[in-house]
Amino acid sequence: MHPKNPLEINILIVVIAQEGNFIRASKKLGVSPPSLTRKVSTLEKIIGVKLFDRSTRNVQLTTAGRLFVQESSIAIIHAERAWDLARFQAQIENGPYRIGYSPYTHSAFLPLLSGLSPARTTGDAPTGIVLETANTLELVERVLRGKLHAALGVGPISDEDLWVQRVGREGFSVCLPRNHRLAQKPGLTAMDLDREMVFWMPRSLQPRLYGRMMKYIASLGIQPLFKEVKSESHALEFAAHGFGIALLPRSTSHISHAGTVFRPLTDRYMGIETVLFMRRDQRYGDLKDLVDDLFARLLALKIEIN
Fold first, then answer.
1. What would the mean pLDDT of 215-243 be, rounded to a whole number?
2. What are the φ and ψ backbone dihedral angles of 97, each rounded to 5 degrees?
3. Mean pLDDT, to the nearest integer, of 139-160?
4. Which of 140, 190, 215, 277 could pair with 164 as two cysteines, CB 3.0-4.6 Å apart?
5. Is 243 in contact with 197 (CB distance < 8 Å)?
6. Contacts of 249-253 spanning 24+ positions with Cβ under 8 A
7. Is 1 inside a domain boundary?
8. What is the pLDDT of residue 191?
9. Three-state SS at 206
């Protein structure tokens, strides 16, 4: 026997787990504590296993409960995406096309995005293109929910619901004060960063790239002193004033700032991979043609900087 409304039950269990208390969960869900307790007890009888240990004032998940919450959370996310996809279907079909991009994608891609024109028209007027910027995790979620038609983000991205294609890769450069001890070297390696104050992107902007870089640096046995800053311009300012050095995408090295020099970071494992992605189930018709045309144009730029 299965519950009449499995998604509702999933939400109840997840909220209880988040709150750790039936009374707080009941207030959040808008149901009485006795009613919530009965629903949970009924579910536990149906599946034949306890989900919560209620031996203390605060409830704790059992092993079975943790597995239940893990899968239920995924189900809830997919249900929310389904609602959003249905709501945004008219936008998907009628435009304007909404394309997202990460601020850490190569600067050469942006003029191409700005000049992109859809082949399809609605009435007598072109559908149009709207550009939005966000970090890669937000872009992925917006594409999955149907709020964006496609996006350029920082790889790796792995989701079975997404069509993902690599369009370029660039390494990093180090911005240093002209009088810095490393400024005389034609190129730098990660080993040169040991014990240096290094200004670079916040973890929240690109958590997967950040994690991959930190893992590589840890494998070298070095200890740079990383300081997260909000923007590339802030990192440049700190380097120019001698507070440390800035780690920036190679494409920013054309930016001139008094008193600084740029040196390439030559480690092949430290780079930014840019990928184009969209929902697999939307790869048809005019939208597919638009994204495929964009993909071809991005590849033609041949952004492969090591």
1. 90
2. -70, 135
3. 89
4. 277
5. yes
6. 249/104, 249/106, 249/170, 249/172, 249/173, 250/170, 250/171, 250/172, 250/173, 250/305, 251/106, 251/107, 251/108, 251/170, 251/305, 252/107, 252/173, 253/173, 253/175
7. no
8. 96
9. coil
pLDDT, residue 6, reads 64
The span from the CA of 200 to the CA of 228, in Å, is 5
pTM: 0.65
Please enumerate in sequence order all residues whose Cβ is within 8 A of that of 187, keeping only pairs 6 or more positions apart, or say none: 263, 264, 265, 266
Domain of 257, CATH number, reads 3.40.190.10
Domain that holds residue 191: 170-271
Domain at 14, CATH number: 1.10.10.10
- pLDDT, residue 117, reads 64
Tell me: pLDDT of 286 over 90.
no
Strands 97-101 and 129-133, sheet pairing: parallel
Q: What is the largest CA-CA distance in the chain?
A: 74
Specify the amino acid at residue 283: R
The closest of 235, 152, 251 to 201, measured between CA atoms, is 235
As a whole number of angstroms, the distance between CA 14 and CA 68 comes to 9
What's the CA dihedral at 204, 207, 213, 216 to 10 degrees? 130
Q: Would strands 162-177 and 303-305 be described as parallel, antiparallel, or unpaired?
A: parallel
Of the chain, the end-to-end C-alpha distance in Å amounts to: 58
175, amino acid identity: C
Q: Indicate whether 257 and 182 sit together in one domain.
A: yes
Task: Find the helix or strand (DSSP H, E) in which 141 lies.
Answer: helix 136-145
Asked if residue 293 is part of any domain, the answer here is yes
- Does residue 31 belong to any structural domain of this protein? yes
Contact, 263 vs 253, CB < 8 A? no
Domain end: 87, 115, 136, which one?
Answer: 87
* Residue 228 scores a pLDDT above 80: yes
Of 56 and 14, the structure prediction assigns the larger pLDDT to 14
Burial bucket for residue 73 (CB in 10 Å: 0-12, 13-18, 19+): middle
